[in-house]
Amino acid sequence: MRDRVAIVTGGGGGIGSAVSVELARRGATVVVLDNGDSLRGEPLGEPTAEATVRRIEAAGGRAVAAPISVTDAAAVHGLVEETVARFGSLDIVVNTAGILRFPRIADASADDWAAVLGVHLGGYLNLLTAALPRMLAAGYGRIVGVTSGVGLARTSVDGPAYGSAKRAVAALTWQLGPVLPAGVAVNALSPIAATRMVTEGLVAAGVDPRGLDLSAMPQPQHMAPAAARLASEQFGWCRGRVLFSAGSELSLIAPPRLVEAIATGGVGAAVALGALVPLVLAPAQAQQRSTGGSNPRSGLLAAAPPDSAGPPGFAGAAGSAGPAERACLVVGDDRALTEQLTAALAPWGYATAAAPVGGAGTGGAVPAFAAAEDGIHRAAANTGAGLDAVVVIHGAHGIGADTTVALGPDAGGGSAEPGGTHGAAGSAGPGGPGVDWRAILDSHAGTAPTILGHVAWTRAAARYVAATGRSLRVVHVVPAVTPGARSAAQAVTQLARSVNDTPTAPTGSDGSGSGLAVFAVSAESPHSADRVPLVELVASLVAAPGTASLAGAELVVRPGWLGLRAHPAPAVTASLAGAELGPWTDDALRDALAPFG
After folding, report:
1. 8 Å CB contact between 247 and 223
2. How far apart are CA 31 and CA 437, in angstroms?
3. What residues does 188 pair with on adjacent strands?
4. Which region holds residue 217: left if phi is over 0, alpha if psi is between -120 and 50, else beta?
5. SS3 call for 48
6. Cross-strand bridge partners of residue 254
7. CA 536 to CA 543: how far, in whole Å?
8. What residues are paired with 249 via a beta bridge?
9. Which one of 231, 339, 423, 555 is at 20 to 30 Å from 477 when CA atoms are compared?
10. Which of 81-95, 100-114, 165-179, 304-318 has the lowest mean pLDDT?
11. Residue 258 — φ and ψ, nearest 5°?
């Protein structure tokens, strides 16, 4: 890395400091960006960046301190320009900056969520927006984002904001990396090490870390070789991937991949769902893989009446329409879709009420949280008996408007899945060739507001359940026809998974195992014809006993079909056994990526 110039954010401590020292040891000039905030993001102004610079200089390296915040877009842009003017280039960015707040969903404040998303997702976007033009103009660059296992394969009941933000970082990386020109590579590292975040997490969980020996865990310096490899010239062949590092092991994390798909065109959606949810989707969700490939799991459905509607396909359902016995609040600004949901839920014995999202997309986190709290209480009071379900439909774009967001030749209409052949025709929906990387970044301007809107109603629902002891289902629908919206949909799914792992009330009467069951659906079709299966899927998640097992599943509606994706998970792990990262690990990763093209 001699003569390379790097910016390392969060470089004043933990993994960021270790990475800064390692890059400098390999010959890079390092700009250490850290404003000295506390782990929770409180402004302390501690000279942490300067401390890392002193370590580097004491070892004979070159470094300068930049005590600014990644959330300050103007300051980040200015730093990039100043770095290029002073040192001649910007070749490497490693974005380890992060904060962590621990309240569970019912106790989290609007500021908690806004701060965590602002640093992890907003800071990453600021660095990408500032650095990529310089790197692309030079024809060379390496950007390493940082995500986390609790935003991928695992969840965090004490840090749902952190996990959701880290999933959004991974989703952005998966979509952006493959479309950049050759010479510029964007990947992300998911590290695990004994840092302040780990010890503070133990405190939040009620464990005294002073009584624990964390020496067996990987240490921050053990993460530096993996970060340096991702930032190296030799690793430019790998783009748009997430790799997990445990020091002695390196794992390739596969994005959510489709494991089951159900056609929505030939048979009444309600009948198909009634037959296939318990036989197909539920087992696939439990095992995180397709259970097909052997004897057929269901009989032929072609004989079912194509206009079937309502619950008859679900065993134990309420039966035909009658007096409403349950209540569902539909949150959203699409009146036609609300009316469709009302009609679909009536046969299940549900009456519906409507509420606006509450300005979550424009009014900021605090008004959104207040509006959701008030909306839940008003709806519950108006029903007289309380709420049984909430459906939240919120995103930057509408559902089924028969429009395509102009991102390139594949916009919104690709047929393969994220995690397929990235960059190939039809891959990852709006991530095909010809997609402007600027459009991908621009589309993420609405990602955090979309997440916050869904969080606000989830929090209000959790508080309602805690206060009343009622059983409540919450179904989130994210219109996801742009890259930014898809990142939001993944983050909302991670939120649902974390909340479902959080005990909120005694076992509900519907057998869900918890008083609160949260579902998430990524609505990825721009076509109005796909509103019908979407509505039927949402209605079944609200009302059918057999769908409780799909809480937290990665559900998707695409043109002509709906399906289930597996959660992000390790695809292959390389055990280093004391060896250096190098050509052999690259060869193993190439072999693992071969099935994806």
Report:
1. yes
2. 25
3. 145, 242
4. beta
5. helix
6. 569
7. 10
8. 575
9. 423
10. 304-318
11. -65, 130
Whole-number Å distance between alpha carbons of 399 and 152: 27
Q: In what order do the strands lie in the sheet with 389-393?
A: 257-263, 561-566, 554-558, 516-523, 472-479, 389-393, 326-331, 350-355
Q: What is the CATH number of domain 257-287+309-318+326-396+446-566?
A: 3.40.50.720
φ, ψ for residue 343 (rounded to 5)?
-65, -40
Q: CB of 141 within 8 A of CB of 185?
A: yes
Q: Quick check: 414 and 433 in contact, CB under 8 A?
A: no
Please name the helix (run of DSSP H) or strand (run of DSSP E) that holds residue 187, with its range, or none. Answer: strand 184-191
Highest mean pLDDT among 214-218, 316-320, 452-456, 506-510: 452-456
State which CATH number among 3.40.50.720, 1.25.40.10, 1.25.40.390, 3.60.15.10 fits the domain covering 5-254+571-596: 3.40.50.720
Looking at residue 409, what is its pLDDT? 29
164, 155 Cβ separation under 8 angstroms: no
Average pLDDT of the chain to the nearest whole number: 84
Residue in this structure with the two tokens 């610079």, named with its chain if needed: 53
pLDDT-wise least confident of 280-294, 458-472, 506-520: 506-520
Tokens of 513: 């195992």
Q: How far apart are CA 494 and CA 474, in angstroms?
A: 14
Q: Which amino acid is at 517?
A: A
Radius of gyration of the chain from its Cα atoms, rounded to whole angstroms: 24
Pick from 476, 430, 5: nearest CA to 176: 430
- Return the domain boundaries, the chain: 5-254+571-596, 257-287+309-318+326-396+446-566
CB contact at 8 A, 569 and 534: no
Model confidence pLDDT, tens digit, residues 528-554:
999 999 999 999 999 998 899 999 999
Task: Extract the runs of DSSP E, i.e. beta strands, from 54-148.
Answer: 62-66, 92-95, 141-146
Q: Which residue has the tokens 């799909």?
A: 550
The dihedral of CA 587, 239, 230, 217: what is its sign?
negative
For the beta carbon of residue 375, count every other beta carbon within 10 angstroms.
22
Averaged pLDDT for residues 563-585: 90
Show which residues are catalytic.
162
Mean pLDDT value across residues 56-75: 97
Closest C-alpha among 313, 311, 242 to residue 276: 313
- Residue the block writes with tokens 């070159």: 62
547: buried, middle or exposed (CB in 10 Å: 19+, 13-18, 0-12)? buried
Total number of residues shown for the chain: 597
Output the six-digit token pair for 79: 């730093």
Question: Given this model, what pLDDT does residue 384 score?
Answer: 82
Show the tokens assigned to 73. Answer: 């877009």
Q: Average pLDDT, stretch 235-245? A: 95
User: Token pair of 268, please?
Assistant: 């009444």
CB burial readout 120-151, b (16+ within 10 A) else e: bbbbbbbbbbbbbebbeeeebbbbbbbbbbbb
Specify the pTM.
0.89
Cβ burial, residue 521 (10 Å; 0-12/13-18/19+): buried
Distance CA 43, CA 360 (A): 26
